[in-house]
Amino acid sequence: MRRPETTYSLSQLYSGAIEIVARDYGSALEIDGVAARLNTSRRQLQRAFTEIGGTTFSRHLTAVRMAHAAELLGDPSVTIGAVAWRVGYRHQAHFTKSFRLHHGALPSVYRRRVALPRLAAQLRAARVAR
């Protein structure tokens, strides 16, 4: 059984890390840097993610990046390379592999099958609402 103050501390670390990831997902985030920003150790932050969030720092960061990437792919004027860069990947090939593993499709296929039809539906709905 954990002491209540330990659980509270882990919750605070987890919340702080979640905020940092939400704000800075497009930069080169690593667990050591986030831990330093929160004045804690890498191990304590790992524990916070595991025990409070039920995930790992890396998985959470990837999920946030992939959610933003999926949104950006809805804009046909943004290249896939630019999407990769904006969400924190410096190599398009690494982004493409991660995206495929996360969403089950290459970014170009996802854009054609999911993102662009969704954008078209939103535009039609906006026209009808006028």
UniProtKB/TrEMBL annotation:
Keywords: DNA-binding, Transcription, Transcription regulation. Pfam families: HTH_18 (PF12833). Residues 15-113 form the HTH araC/xylS-type domain. This is Helix-turn-helix transcriptional regulator. It comes from Conexibacter stalactiti.
